[in-house]
Amino acid sequence: DAKTTQPTSMDCAEGRAANLPCNHSTISGNEYVYWYRQIHSQGPQYIIHGLKNNETNEMASLIITEDRKSSTLILPHATLRDTAVYYCIVRDTGRRALTFGSGTRLQVQP
Amino acid sequence: NAGVTQTPKFQVLKTGQSMTLQCAQDMNHEYMSWYRQDPGMGLRLIHYSVGAGITDQGEVPNGYNVSRSTTEDFPLRLLSAAPSQTSVYFCASSPGLAYYYEQYFGPGTRLTVT
C-alpha cells in the first residue's frame, strides 16, 4: 500500500470547517483513499472513501487532487465531538486489511 | 443491531498466563479481523478471517491464535502472555474484503501484562 503523510496535529474552531490534508504521492491506479477517525481510544470509525472523484456523505467531503497524489478531508461544521485522531489510509482493492499510520490529532476548540 | 462487541473491556494478566479475548458481530459479516494498538501508534493487523473455518495471519501474528467456527464469533487466544503484548485490542468486521465495504470496529479490550 502507498505510504501516507499527515500533519501530527491541527486545531479548528467550533462551527468552522476543518480541512485535514493527506499526502500520498506514491499512490497507484487501483488504490483507494479511506478516512477513519478514532475518538478518545474508542474503536476507529469509518468516515469516507474515494478513488479519484470527490465524494460527499453526511459526515464529510473528500477532495482528491487530479493527479491523486494528495487529498483533503473536510468536516464542514466542526463540533467538539469531532475532536479525534483522523487516519488517512490508502488501500489496494486486493489488500486484506487497513494499514494505519499515526494520523492527525484534530482538536476542536470552543 | 449491537454491531461488534468485545469482552472483556479490561484485563490484567501475569506473564505466562493464557486467555481468550472474545469478539462477536450480529451483522452476518464474512470478514473479521483483530488489530492491536500500542500507545501513540496506529493499528496493526494480527489475524483475520474471510469466513467460517478460514483464518490467516496478519502483520504481527506471533503469540496469538484464532479460530472461526461460526460467522458471528472470532476469538483471539493469547497462548503465554508477555509484557510486549500489553496493548489495546480491536476486533473489526465487514461484509467482505471489497474496496467499497467499510470496516466496523468494536470498542476494544485493554490488556496489561505484568
Write a concise synopsis of the structure shown.
The complex is a heterodimer of chains A (110) and B (114). With 110 residues, chain A is mainly beta. Chain A has strands at residues 9-13, 18-23, 31-38, 45-50, 55-56, 61-64, 70-75, 84-92, 104-109.
- Uncertain ranges of chain B: none
The largest sheet of chain A has its strands arranged as: 1-9-8-3-4
N→C terminal distance of chain B: 36 Å
Structural class of chain A: mainly beta
Number of strands of chain A: 9
* Average pLDDT number of chain B: 94
Q: How would you name the oligomeric state of the polypeptide chains in this document?
A: heterodimer
Which runs of chain A of at least 5 residues are low in confidence (pLDDT < 50)? none
Write the layout of secondary structure elements.
The complex is a heterodimer of chains A (110) and B (114).
Chain A: E1 9-13, E2 18-23, E3 31-38, E4 45-50, E5 55-56, E6 61-64, E7 70-75, E8 84-92, E9 104-109
Chain B: E1 4-7, E2 10-13, E3 19-25, E4 31-37, E5 43-51, E6 54-57, E7 64-66, E8 76-78, E9 87-94, E10 104-105, E11 109-113
